Amino acid sequence: MRFPRASGVLLHPTSLPGPHGSGDFGPAAYHFVDWLVGAGQSLWQILPLGGIGPGNSPYMSSSAFAGNVLLIDLGELHSRGWLAAADLASDGAVFNQRRLDFAAVYPYRMSRLKLAAQAFAKSASPAERADFDAFCARQQNWLGDFALFMSLAHAFDWRDWSDWDAPLARREPAALAAAAAEHDEEVRFWKFCQWSFFRQWGALKA
């Protein structure tokens, strides 16, 4: 297949400016798309949008399907009422304006996503809950396993999965079912994050 000659920009969304330590799917991303159009560009090479792994690399993601939760626009979660204005305060976190400091950004953003997930569980509208449930149903071939894996990885302090309790490492159905029940809130948190990621990414692409 031959493509017409075109030009564009290589830029990962985390490199966009933003108030929360890293670029995301917020207003700066929409501004960048508008700038591309105004500059006569037709391509945006974004690099992988998967979750980061060792070395904070998107090429070492825990999943081939899950999105990078650091790209979730916290401002949009605030506009939906799942984060208060005070929740977006830096709480002493110092963000580097010229580079992404994962050591500062990751805990800051994850704590806010936790608050948003808790607020969603308490106050989401029927339409929002229906959209969340529909997303989980559409992505059931990977989402449940991913959410449970991330929950267990956190519970085991991010040790290699081969060092987890043997029944879990062997994926014994009874052990997995018991773990899913024990970590139900954490599993729903990771599902909420993926729903938020793909909902925002879909809006940006549109």
General description of the model:
The chain has helices at 27-38, 74-79, 102-123, 126-138, 143-155, 166-169, 173-182, 184-205, and strands at residues 8-10, 43-45. The chain is an all-alpha fold. It has a two-stranded parallel ribbon with strand order 1-2. Strand 1, helix 1 (27-38) and strand 2 form a beta-alpha-beta unit.
Q: What would the principal axes of the Cα set say about the shape?
A: globular
Number of strands: 2
Radius of gyration: 18 Å
Strand content: under 5%
**Class by helix and strand content?**
mainly alpha
* Share of helical residues: 40-55%
Uncertain regions spanning at least 5 consecutive residues: none
Secondary structure tally, helices? 8
Give the rounded overall mean pLDDT. 94
Largest sheet: 2 strands, parallel
Reading the helices and strands in chain order gives EHEHHHHHHH
Taking the alpha carbons of the first and last residues, their distance comes to 25 Å
Strand order of the largest sheet: 1-2
Task: Give the tags.
206 residues; mainly alpha; two-stranded parallel sheet; 2 strands; 50% helix
Describe what is shown at a glance.
With 206 residues, this protein is mainly alpha-helical. It has helices at residues 27-38, 74-79, 102-123, 126-138, 143-155, 166-169, 173-182, 184-205; strands spanning 8-10, 43-45. Strand 1, helix 1 (27-38) and strand 2 form a beta-alpha-beta unit.
